[in-house]
Amino acid sequence: MEAGDNGVAGFDVATIDAWLPSVSGATGPFTWTRLEGGHSNLTYLIVDSEGREFVIRRPPQGELLPKAHDMWREYRIIDGLWPTPVPVAEPVSYQDERSLCDAHFYVMGKVDGNALYTGEEVAALLDVSARKRAGESFVDTLAALHSIAPEDVGLGDLGRPDGYVARQLKTWYGSWTASVGDADYDDPRTHSLHELLSSKIPEQGEGRVVHGDFGPHNCLFLSDGSLSAVLDWEIATLGDPLADIAYSINAWTEPGDNIAEGVDAPTVLEGFPSRQELMERYAAGTGADLSLMPYYRAFNWFKTACIVHGVYARYRAGKKSTEGVDMDLLHTRIGIALDNADTMAADIL
C-alpha cells in the first residue's frame, strides 16, 4: 500500500480537502485518521475545524476481483435506507470522478457508538440493564429491515429476490470444493450437508434486503443499549429474510454453546436476551413463521464452514500473509461450524 507524504493512502488529501466543503458544508482545515477494519477498504475519519466528523471510504489499491469492493452498491443501500427506521450513517456523497481520486469512493457521516466484538468490550460499554435493550434493538432493527419492500426505497434491482438459498448453497459448496487442494483438508460432512440442505430448500416468501453479516460486530451501540447504526453493507442483496435472521441468531452466542476455546463471545454475558427471546420478538415484529429455523440455522453454519475453509486455504497456499493469524483456530472454527450444522440438521431430517 502506497501512502502519500502525509501518511494517507489512496487519496490526495489536498484534492479531497478542497472538494469536501462543496458537498457537506464542512469547513477546513481537516484532520485525517485511518480507521481499521472495513473488509480491507481504505477508510478514514475526517474531522473539520468545527469538530464535525465524516467517514470517507474507497476500495483497496491494486488489482481487485470483479464486483468486489463496490462502493456504489454500499452507498446506494445506505442512501435508500436513510429515511427508514433502519439506522445507518448519513449518506453525504458518492463520487466516480477521476479528477478527485483514481477509484470511486463515498463519504458518509460519522455515527457514535461501538461494535461488540468481545465480552470485555461489552462489560466496558453496557451495564446489565442496557444489554437487554441492546438485544431488543438488535433484533428490532433486523425486523425493520425485513419489513421494507425493496422497491419502496429504490433497491428493487439490488439482486434477484427469489432462489436465494439455492444460489448460496451452490456458491459456497463450490468454494469448498475449489479450496480443498490449497487447504489440504476435506470433511465428508460438508458433502452430506450440501446434499441434505439442497434437497430440503424451503419455499421462499417475499424477497427483502438481506444484510448477510448482521451480527453485534456490525452494529454500533450506545451505552444505553440503543443501536445507532448498522455497518458494512458490502454483501447485502435481495433474498430470503429467514436466512438473514438465522445468521443473526447463530451469531448470538449463549453460555454453553459450541465455540472455539478462548473465543471471547460478547453476548454470553449476563443481561442479554436469549436466542429464543430474540426469535419470538422478531416473529412478533414481522409476522414471520420461524418453524423452519433449524433448516436456516443449519444452512448458515454450513455457509460459515465454507467461508472459513476458503480463508484457511488462501492463507495456507501463501496467497495471504499468515502473520498474526492463528491457523489452528481457523481450522478449529471450520470443524465447529460443521458440528453445529450437523446438530441443526438433525431436526430437519
Structural summary, described in words:
The N and C termini lie far apart (50 Å). The longest helix is centred in the C-terminal third of the chain and has 24 residues, at 293-316. Strands 1-2-3-5-4 form a five-stranded antiparallel beta sheet, covered by helices on one side. The model has no long low-confidence stretch (mean pLDDT 94). β2 (42-47) and β3 form a beta hairpin. It is of the alpha+beta class. The chain folds into two domains: 13-109, Phosphorylase Kinase, domain 1 (2-Layer Sandwich), CATH 3.30.200.20; 119-345, Aminoglycoside 3'-phosphotransferase, Chain: A, domain 2, CATH 3.90.1200.10. α8 (241-251) packs across α10. Helix content is 42%, strand content 11%.
Summarize the structure.
The protein has 349 residues and is α+β, with helices and mostly antiparallel strands. Helices cover 42% and strands 11% of the residues.
Name some characteristics of this structure:
349 residues; alpha+beta; Phosphorylase Kinase, domain 1; Aminoglycoside 3'-phosphotransferase, Chain: A, domain 2; 2 domains; two-stranded antiparallel ribbon; 11 helices; globular
Number of domains: 2
The helix fraction, in percent, is 40-55%
Mean model confidence by pLDDT: 94
Distance N terminus to C terminus? 50 Å
Unreliable spans:
none
Report the structural category: alpha+beta
Order of strands in the sheet with the most strands?
A: 1-2-3-5-4
> What is the global morphology?
globular
CATH topology value of the largest domain: Aminoglycoside 3'-phosphotransferase, Chain: A, domain 2
CATH class of the largest domain: Alpha Beta
Number of helices: 11
Strand percentage lies at 5-15%
| Rg calc | 21 Å
The CATH architecture of the largest domain can be given as: Alpha-Beta Complex
Query: How do the SSEs run, as a string of H and E?
Result: HHEEEHEEHHHHEEEEHHHH
Major beta sheet, specifics?
Answer: 5 strands, antiparallel
Number of strands: 9
The CATH superfamily of the largest domain bears the name: Aminoglycoside phosphotransferase (APH), C-terminal lobe
